[in-house]
Design a protein that fits this description.
The chain has 341 residues and is mainly α.
Length: 341
């Protein structure tokens, strides 16, 4: 909101203000100080139950007060408090729950999640490990979702601490329970990269992108790993995707800039073509096209190299792409109409 924006009181606010004036006047005239106090209390009570979430909090609070020894009730109340951003109060309820039922994995997991939210990684790790301990050897260990979530967050904590081997183990444990989590595959790739096993990291990124083809962070890491291997063309494909999906990402833009400029790539393509290195000319043209997908000159550089290589059919297909961007381009028309290399 700018300083020039006019702030108009709503009808509700005006009516509310007038009501308070009337109440105050009546109280003053009649000398009934208690009337004003009661009305304020009543209004606060109404406001405290104004939304479904607030009403739910109130009902859960009543339940816990009526049945203070219900661990399940305290967990539900704690979760509602956490959702409302009341982390300290939520933690109190979860701790009360585990005192009542030390094996309540839901309460331990919630304690860990709240600790993570509060940036208390030390206690979070302790609570998540408790979930793992309580679910180890259980009948449903392999499908216990709480166990899977605990493993995931233990992996996050270990990865942040650069304990890569531990992190990889935790993420693998989580994936054994929930096999379709693109985020877990991506984080496992980070851990494996930290261990120096980039082949395995790329396999995990393939899995992450299979479940979520538009996962910007996975494309970014894929591109970075390929760039480290000097595979500029395939790196460019993933980094272009990362930039397109996350245009505000400074990391993606910085990595993409390492590919060089459009003009440089086109120049290298022309030089390679002149030297008879058709394959190199195609590669540099493909790189140029990733750097700027709207560049007609980059598309034509690829078409020229394909013609030189004798692949007229592919060159014509590429030239038609140039005509979509520049319908009057003479060179593109000539290539599409050519019948010989």
């Amino acid at each position: 909101m700018t300083e020039e924006t006019e702030v108009r009181p709503s009808r509700r606010n005006v009516d509310s203000a007038l009501r308070w004036v009337v109440v105050a006047l009546v109280a003053a005239i009649l000398g009934l100080g208690g009337l004003l106090g009661y009305t304020i209390w009543q209004t606060r009570q109404e406001e405290s139950t104004a939304t479904p979430a607030q009403r739910a909090l109130g009902e859960l609070e009543k339940f816990v007060k009526a049945q203070p020894n219900s661990a399940a009730g305290r967990v539900r109340y704690g979760e509602a408090l956490a959702t409302a951003g009341m982390l300290k109060e939520a933690t109190q309820q979860f701790k009360a729950a585990v005192k009542l039922d030390e094996k309540h994995t839901g309460a331990w997991l919630d304690l860990g999640l709240v600790a993570m939210e509060a940036k208390d990684r030390t206690n979070a790790e302790k609570y998540f490990n408790k979930v793992v301990d309580l679910t180890t050897g259980s009948t449903y260990e392999a499908i216990n979702q709480r166990r899977g979530v605990a493993f995931f967050h233990l992996g996050e904590i270990a990865l942040d601490d650069r304990r890569y081997e531990e992190a990889a183990g935790y993420f693998k444990g989580s994936l054994r329970i929930k096999k379709d989590s693109s985020t877990t595959y991506y984080l496992l790739a980070n851990a494996l990269h930290g261990l120096g096993d980039d082949d395995a990291a790329l396999e995990q990124l393939d899995a992450a992108l299979a479940f979520d083809p538009n996962y910007a962070e996975a494309h970014y890491l894929y591109g970075v790993l390929l760039l480290e291997r000097k595979d500029r063309i395939n790196a460019a494909v993933h980094l272009r995707k990362a930039v397109d999906l996350a245009p505000d990402s400074e990391l993606a833009k910085t990595a993409f800039a390492k590919l060089g400029t459009l003009d440089d790539a086109i120049k290298r393509s022309k030089e390679a073509l002149a030297a008879g290195r058709d394959t190199d000319a195609v590669d540099e043209a493909l790189l140029a096209r990733q750097i700027d997908p709207t560049s007609v000159e980059a598309i034509l550089a690829q078409a020229r190299a394909l013609v030189s290589r004798g692949d007229v059919k592919s060159a014509q297909t590429v030239a038609r792409e140039a005509l979509k961007l520049d319908p009057k381009n003479a060179e593109a028309k000539r290539i599409t109409q050519s019948t010989t290399p």
